[in-house]
Amino acid sequence: METVPAIVIGAGVVGLACARALARRGIPPLILEQHGAFGQETSARNSEVIHCGIYYPPGSLKAQLCVQGRELLYDFCASHGIGHRRCGKLIVATDREGERRLEQLHAQGLANGVTDLERLSGPEAQALEPALHCTAALLCPSTGIVDSHGLMLALLGEGEAGGATLVCHSPVLGGDWDGKRLALQVGEEGSEGATMALAGELVINAAGLQATQVARAWRGFPGPLPAPHYAKGNYYSLSGRPPFSHLIYPLPEPGGLGVHLTLDLGGQARFGPDVEWLPGADPGHLDYGVAPERAQSFYGEVRKYWPGLAEGALQPAYSGVRPKIAAPGAWADFQLQGPAHHGVPGLVNLFGIESPGLTASLALGEAVCQTLGV
């Protein structure tokens, strides 16, 4: 059995950020990816938004790593020529109850260290965005958008410059923990049904949608492991140019941030995601199709803040699935389970890395290395 300095399981944005962080410390990792290329699941199927850090309970990992990761990400994008724009976001209220919730969100953001927030009246918000309907809004100037593929390509390139190696078509099928070493069973590319045994002095499980399943397949692993829950989010694109220059968000809802308007770097708009829970789903066989008829529920939600949305203007775009570790109606923080949690030296499991995982990716890479003591 071959032993390598480090193994990262999963080549999404978080796995690539972890690999880069290790490589920068002189620890060249092997990145094992089950698909034929990096970033084929959650990292490629999201809003591509750089969040400011307002949505998460003070003191949570999501709050801390989002705020830290946001500035690391802006700096990384600027220094590596990655497409991005700090366009700002308006979170809007359309009634008195919404205004009360907006005040709570404002206070939470300030507690998280998001200091550039600005409360706006309805007319003040409409002065920024004349097509907008709201009674009050919260302006978040540090929110932005990013080219997620360009980001992952740059992370991989910097990791490879430090000795990291990406090996695709290499799913982790199982493993054995004998009390001393975690040995992984890895599917071999081009060999039908064949596997190889591989051990890493350090192992990072950043398998995203399948992180729990990967850890469950390790015989002798002490656990405990969180139960996975999957929430599909559907997106619809807008035909024609949008009348907005900021991202527009309603107040968050259970399981997501509401049907919001995001812009890509070309100025095109998309709406979503909604929340479609997938009980009993197999993360290896997910249906990413977007049903045209689901758009009907979007019109009513969007028209609460954009009454001018024309009938028939929404077209199916794409969908993504959130790797949650909390059931519908519940909230869960990121979980970074290191040796202090499970007793396996050199291993970190990352569970529930949904939004703001993209924003927090660089900070997550640093946090994982700190957990491993490297």
UniProtKB/TrEMBL annotation:
UniProt domain FAD dependent oxidoreductase: residue ranges: 7-370
InterPro entries: FAD-dep_OxRdtase (IPR006076)
Amino-acid biosynthesis as UniProt keyword: no
Cofactor: FAD
Keywords on record: FAD, Flavoprotein, Oxidoreductase
Keyword Membrane belongs to the record: no
A GO term, aspect molecular function: (S)-2-hydroxyglutarate dehydrogenase activity
Pfam families: DAO (PF01266)
Protein name: NAD(P)/FAD-dependent oxidoreductase
Taxonomic source organism: Azospira inquinata
